[in-house]
Amino acid sequence: MSIEIIGKQIATLRKEKGIKQEELATYVGVSTQAVSKWENGGVPDTDLLPKIADFFAVSVDFLFGRNITDYSDLQSALIEKVNNTPYDLRFKQVFNYCWDMERALMDDIHLIERNSIEDYEKEIDETAQHYSSMETDHGFTRMGVANRLQYFLIVPETKDTDAAYFHGIDYPAFFKDFSDADVFNACVLLHQREHKKAFTPLLLVKTMGMTPEKSNKVLEILKKYSLVYTTQIEMDDEVQTVYHFSSTPSFIALLIFAREVIDKPRIFCYSCQNRGKPYLK
Q1: Hey, what long-range contacts does 225-231 have (CB within 8 A, 24 or more apart)?
Q2: Could you report the per-residue pLDDT of 209-224, keeping only the tens digit for each?
Q3: How far apart are CA 251 and CA 227, in angstroms?
Q4: CA gap 94, 2 in Å, rounded
Q5: Cβ neighbours of residue 203 under 8 Å, at least 6 residues apart?
Q6: Contacts of 201 (CB under 8 A, 6+ apart)
Q7: What does pTM read for this prediction?
Q8: Element (H, E) at 271
Q9: How many C-beta atoms surround the C-beta of residue 162 within 10 A?
Q10: What is the pLDDT of residues 189-242, one digit of tens each?
Q11: Three-class SS of residue 273?
Q12: Which of 29, 32, 81, 131 has the fewest CB atoms within 10 Å of its CB?
């Protein structure tokens, strides 16, 4: 078997995972030009092969085209692969794996063999938003592919939808509270600030034009949902109440899926709608 196959394997793995040449080069400690040379018929130095294999979570044998598949410890290999990825690239890497899992769930070889996430991003407008979705009786996924916002949600079928979604939760009260534009906009504002910075009700008065009474009312609502909490400090010989904000990614997730309800997704790279039973049975 020709040693030149290594370059082809590297190119294939990189595109499948949606990894840029620069990312591989940085991890291995070579120039981007070196990676390009490998993919066009060159051969890496032999002492680099283990590091390249680690980067892609494959064996050195695999780089030589010897496809020895062993799934016995796939989870450990995946964890090690992510842990060995530079910290600033980990979320991108994991998102690429989510893309792979989404395609695998489709169970269609023609879809599975389609573009890497990196290639797909290049094919569409930089402001476009495309989606992927699997809807079956075993669960569902929703994926924001590119380019405006990327996310991945997977929900295995729940055993008890009442316990999962409704028990003890007063949705009408929540939506009534956040239908108040001042409450919603205050929550957005606080998510835009450094969350460690303390503040008083005067912040909402100055930045949002609220009355002091409305500011206090809004903060009490946010306090009800544990989005803010208070402490007392002594200042100018007086004990004063200050507020602290507890940022949460759940609010951002709420924005993501509220937007999907308001502005229904229309462009799907993959879509499987094989669900026969209701979601909230």
Answers
A1: 225/174, 225/177, 227/187, 227/190, 227/251, 228/190, 231/198
A2: 999 999 999 999 999 9
A3: 10
A4: 32
A5: 215
A6: 212, 215, 216, 219, 243
A7: 0.72
A8: strand 268-273
A9: 10
A10: 999 999 889 999 999 999 999 999 999 999 999 999 999 999 998 877 788 899
A11: strand
A12: 29
Ordered by start, the domain boundaries in the chain are 1-85, 171-250
Strand pairing partners for 233? Answer: 240
Contact of 49 with 18, CB cutoff 8 Å:
no
Count CB-CB contacts under 10 A for residue 91: 12
Angle at 147 (CA atoms; ends 125, 250), nearest 5 degrees? 155
Q: Which residue has the tokens 């499948």?
A: 16
Q: How far apart are CA 95 and CA 56, in angstroms?
A: 14
Q: For the structural domain made of 171-250, what CATH number should be given?
A: 1.10.10.10
Would you give the DSSP letter of residue 47?
G
Contact 139, 118 (CB under 8 A): no
Distances (CA, A) of 197 to 116, 193, 233, 251: 41, 8, 14, 19
Three-class DSSP category at 142: strand
Task: Name the residue type at position 128.
Answer: A
Q: How many helices (H) and strands (E) does the chain have?
A: 15, 6
Answer whether 132's CB lies under 8 Å from 145's CB: yes
Long-range pairs, 77-82, Cβ under 8 A, ≥24: 80/54, 81/54, 81/55, 81/56, 81/57
Architecture of the CATH domain 1-85: Orthogonal Bundle (1.10)
Peptide bond into 147 cis (omega under 30): yes
C-alpha distances (whole Å) from 109 to each of 103, 112, 113 are: 9, 5, 6
